[in-house]
């Protein structure tokens, strides 16, 4: 069994580790697995600290729920290749993932403005794969369990249900003494002479780490400790997620995204007749979407993919007065009946017929980017380093790329016999990962801004842009490569 330490031990002086990872989300667990499967880094002594219990994640491997959970992401082939290399992909519940081969994106202000992406443009098999976040985390924990079972000295521990309460610099840091070998401790070397950060945990323990990793999400305590500035803004929008049943299984295997002025609504395929939605919306609309009666909700999703915004606003107002008003369903059906069935079949996603209970949730949307991913003895990965609008489904994928780039930089450091917490080793990570992330963050931010407006000249310009883009395979290929992480 994984040695999960929940001891309440209180230590006078911190124990030493090579790497401490804060955060057991997808980025933190991927990094621990990548370190422990790298031939050059697996000797490092690592601790991962997670504030919440990972028990539900462990249970998912042996006893997954029948219905889908609601945190579902679109994984790029690049992220999947990386996880295949680590080996956790072998433990993914494959019956709960779904590849898709294209996206149809269209504008609520002009139904004829469409871009149809399909993999024909890229020459690849799959554009992306829908997968629950807990499926990814669970496969990583299982891989780590396998590594632990194979070795008498796996050299890592996972402390879940344990919060980092404080991170401090040692009082008498002496950077020139930091190169000593952990395996051969120098008795004359007091820990307080190291410049390694000290992490204080809610279980009373203290750990002093050669390299401290912040995989601790948007409010990263590690980023705050390292005084790395993060810049960005709130979108004043929420991403409402939910799992739905479609009228029947859609064998087209495509994702649909409609740009409404309140924000884009995406329907992405899951196995059989299941699908997941991400509906970026204003604070008022997102509250309504969570309140609306469960049986009305799927009709609202179908309406929002097809009807004019003026009609949608009328229906929203009805439901704002009474979220259980079933007359709203009749209003929607009457309006949809004006479309020819063949037009609906060909140009729109299948109707939603059921909301999977307890899958509605909303998340505030924001854009943020840390000025750097590293400081002396510190590195940030995943949402601790950046958060992005979900319209292109890139957040978790960017975290996977961060991990790949950080591991590469650390392996190079080992090859050169360098101290892994040193700026010289870590700076290469920022240099390799930051610029590409910055471009992606910028593109998604602009897309959000251009599409969430009904300012007429911009509506006309984007309509022309979408029609034009749709005719150029090379431009579409470039955008598809961005979406598929190639
Ligand atoms: C609506 C929506 C849709 C999305 N869709 C997609 C998509 O399709 N594709 C995609 O790639 N991405 C998507 N994302 C983004 C993706 O979900 C995130 O980028 C990803 O989950 C972040 O993972 P992470 O491990 O970096 O951070 P997190 O998942 O936030 O993990 C951070 C962990 O650190 C722990 N932690 C924090 N502080 C402490 C502390 N003091 N002590 C101990 N532990 C601590 C937390 O408990 C948490 O478990 C979407 C996001 C949203 C909101």
UniProtKB/TrEMBL annotation:
InterPro entries: FAD-bd, FAD/NAD-bd_sf, Ubi_Hdrlase_CS, UbiH/COQ6, UbiH/COQ6_monooxygenase, UbQ_mOase_COQ6
EC number: 1.14.15.45, 1.14.15.46
Main location class: mitochondrion
Compartments (UniProt record): Mitochondrion inner membrane
Domain of life: Eukaryota
Alphabetical keyword list: FAD, Flavoprotein, Membrane, Mitochondrion, Mitochondrion inner membrane, Monooxygenase, Oxidoreductase, Ubiquinone biosynthesis
Stated name of the protein: Ubiquinone biosynthesis monooxygenase COQ6, mitochondrial
């Amino acid at each position: 069994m994984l040695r999960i330490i929940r001891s309440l031990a209180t230590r006078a002086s911190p124990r030493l580790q090579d790497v401490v990872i804060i955060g057991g989300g997808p980025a933190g667990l991927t990094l621990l697995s990548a370190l422990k499967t790298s031939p050059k880094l697996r000797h490092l002594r690592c601790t991962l600290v997670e504030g919440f219990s990972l028990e539900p994640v462990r249970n998912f491997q042996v006893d997954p729920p029948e219905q889908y959970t609601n945190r579902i992401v679109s994984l790029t082939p690049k992220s999947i290749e990386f996880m295949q290399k680590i080996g956790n992909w072998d433990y993914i519940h494959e019956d709960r993932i779904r590849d898709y081969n294209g996206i149809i994106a269209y504008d609520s202000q002009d139904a004829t403005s469409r871009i149809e992406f399909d993999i024909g443009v890229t020459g690849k098999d799959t554009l992306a794969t829908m997968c629950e976040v807990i499926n990814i985390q669970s496969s990583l924990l299982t891989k780590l369990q396998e590594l632990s079972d194979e070795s008498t000295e796996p050299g890592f521990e996972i402390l879940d249900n344990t919060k980092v309460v404080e991170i401090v610099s040692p009082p008498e840091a002496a950077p020139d003494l930091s190169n000593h070998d952990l395996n051969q401790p120098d008795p004359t070397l007091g820990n307080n002479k190291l410049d390694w950060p000290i992490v204080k945990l809610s279980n009373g323990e203290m750990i002093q780490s050669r390299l401290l990793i912040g995989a601790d999400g948007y409010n990263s305590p590690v980023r705050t400790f390292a005084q790395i500035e993060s810049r960005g803004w709130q979108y004043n929008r929420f991403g409402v997620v939910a799992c739905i049943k479609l009228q029947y299984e859609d064998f087209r295997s495509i994702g649909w995204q409609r740009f409404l002025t309140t924000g884009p609504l995406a329907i992405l395929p899951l196995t059989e007749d299941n699908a997941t939605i991400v509906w970026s919306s204003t604070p008022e609309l997102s509250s309504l979407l969570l309140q609306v009666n469960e049986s009305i909700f799927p009709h609202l999703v179908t309406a929002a993919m097809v009807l004019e915004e003026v009609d949608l606003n009328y229906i929203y107002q009805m439901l704002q007065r009474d979220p259980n008003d079933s007359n709203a369903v009749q209003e929607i059906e009457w309006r949809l009946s004006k479309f020819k069935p063949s037009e609906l079949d060909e140009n729109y996603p299948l109707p939603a017929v059921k909301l999977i209970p307890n899958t509605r949730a909303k998340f505030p949307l924001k854009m943020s980017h840390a000025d750097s991913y590293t400081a002396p003895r510190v590195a940030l990965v995943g949402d601790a380093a950046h958060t992005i609008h979900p319209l292109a489904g890139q957040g978790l994928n960017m975290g996977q790329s961060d991990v790949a780039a950080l591991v590469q930089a650390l392996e190079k450091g080992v090859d050169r016999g360098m101290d892994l917490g040193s700026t010289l080793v870590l700076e290469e990570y920022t240099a390799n990962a930051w610029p590409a992330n910055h471009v992606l963050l910028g593109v998604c931010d602009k897309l959000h801004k251009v599409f969430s407006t009904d300012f007429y000249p911009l509506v006309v310009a984007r309509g022309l842009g979408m029609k034009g883009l749709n005719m150029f395979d090379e431009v579409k290929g470039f955008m598809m490569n961005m979406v598929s992480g190639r």
